[in-house]
Specification:
alpha/beta; Rossmann fold; 2 domains; 6-stranded parallel β-sheet
Length: 325
C-alpha cells in the first residue's frame, strides 16, 4: 500500500491511544504515506510525529468529504472510530480497502470487516485500535502513547515556568475533565492541593480555558500556600503539553492531560471509577507506557459521587512515593 488513511475523529486521549496504530502501520509500510483524519481540536497532537505524514481535519458540518478523499486516491482506510457518515464517505470515495468493525448496522460499507467489540472493556483501548488494522497488526500489543514536543516548545515552557518561579519536577494538578470522566469534587481537589503544598511540594493547578475560574477558586480556598501556582495563561494545546513535559507528576482523573503526560513519559496519578463501571475501566482507558498509579473508590458504587470516597490521606501517601520535592 502506498497511501493509507487512519480515521479517529474524537478527543485528545482517544487520538493519543491511536498513535500506536500509526507507529505500527509505518513499521509495516515504511514507504507509505500515512494520513490522519482527525478533529481540529485534537489535530495538533500529531505535529512532529514521524509516523504521520499528513493530516486532514474532519468537520461533520462540512460537505464534500467523500470528494476530498477521492482526490487523495487512498489505497486503504482504517476506521478506528467508525460512524455512519464516515463509513459512507469512505465507501463513496471508492477507497479499495475499507477496514472497520463488523458488528454495526452500517458495517456493510466496510469490505474488510474486523470482529471486534469494545463493550466488555477487556483490552486496552490502544489494543482495540491496533486490532482494527486486521492482519497487518495481528499479534501486536500497544506499548506506549506517542507525543513529540519540539525544542522551541520546550524552551517556551521553561521560560514560562521560570517567570512563575517554578522549577522542573513540580506536581501538575488538573482538576477538570469537561464532563468526560468521573472525577473528584472541587472540595476534594482543594484539600489535595492544600495538603500537597503543605507537604513541601510545588503544585501547579492547570485547566482548560473554561476551567480557569474554577482552578483559581481551588487555589484561593486551599489557603495562602506558597507552593501553589495557577497556570492562568491561555496556551495552545501543544504549549500546554510542553508545560506538562516539565512536571515530575501529573494528577488528574481519566482525561486528555493524563494521556499527554503518559505519552511524554511523565508519571501520572489518576482517579478512575470502580471497575464495575465497565465503560470507564482503567484496564481500557488507563495511561500507557509510563510510571503510573491508578486510584479508585470501592467497588459497587454506581454514581459519580462515589469518587469522593477516595481517601485523600491515602492519595498523599502515593504522592510521597512518586514525587520529588
Amino acid at each position: 500500500m502506498n497511501k493509507i488513511l487512519v480515521s479517529r475523529t474524537d478527543g485528545i486521549g482517544d487520538l493519543l491511544l491511536t498513535t500506536p496504530l500509526f507507529s505500527e502501520l509505518k513499521r509495516a509500510f515504511p514507504r507509505a504515506r500515512i494520513t490522519a483524519l482527525v478533529s481540529a481540536y485534537a489535530a495538533p497532537l500529531l505535529i512532529n510525529n514521524p509516523s504521520v505524514d499528513a493530516v486532514i481535519i474532519y468537520d461533520k458540518k462540512e460537505k464534500g468529504l467523500a470528494q476530498k478523499l477521492k482526490k487523495e486516491s487512498f489505497d486503504a482506510v482504517f476506521a478506528v472510530y467508525p460512524r455512519p457518515a464516515l463509513a459512507w464517505a469512505f465507501f463513496s470515495a471508492g477507497i479499495p480497502l475499507r477496514y472497520g468493525t463488523s458488528s454495526r448496522w452500517y458495517s456493510f460499507l466496510f469490505n474488510k470487516r474486523v470482529k471486534l467489540s469494545r463493550k466488555s472493556s477487556e483490552k486496552h483501548e490502544a489494543d482495540y485500535n491496533l486490532a482494527v488494522a486486521g492482519e497487518f497488526t495481528e499479534g501486536a500489543r500497544a506499548q506506549k502513547e506517542y507525543f513529540f514536543i519540539t525544542e522551541v516548545e520546550s524552551r517556551k515552557a521553561v521560560e514560562l515556568m521560570e517567570k512563575k518561579g517554578i522549577k522542573k519536577g513540580f506536581i501538575a494538578l488538573h482538576p477538570g475533565s469537561k464532563g468526560s470522566a468521573w472525577n473528584l469534587s472541587a472540595v476534594k481537589y482543594t484539600r489535595l492541593a492544600a495538603m500537597t503544598a503543605g507537604a513541601g511540594y510545588c503544585v501547579l493547578l492547570t485547566g482548560s480555558g473554561a476551567e480557569k475560574g474554577d482552578i483559581k477558586v481551588i487555589a484561593q480556598n486551599a489557603g495562602a500556600k506558597s507552593g501553589i501556582f495557577v497556570l492562568d495563561e491561555e496556551l495552545s494545546l501543544r504549549d500546554f503539553a510542553a508545560v506538562l513535559s516539565l512536571a515530575g507528576l501529573v494528577i488528574s482523573c481519566s482525561t486528555g492531560p493524563m494521556h499527554i503526560a503518559a505519552a511524554l513519559g511523565i508519571k501520572t496519578l489518576s482517579f478512575f471509577p470502580p471497575d464495575n463501571i465497565r465503560a470507564m475501566r482503567p484496564k481500557r482507558w488507563g495511561p500507557l507506557g509510563n510510571d503510573h498509579v491508578i486510584i479508585q473508590p470501592p467497588e459497587g458504587n454506581e454514581k459519580e459521587a462515589a469518587m469522593d470516597l477516595i481517601d485523600i490521606k491515602g492519595v498523599m501517601e502515593k504522592i510521597k512515593d512518586m514525587a520529588v520535592k
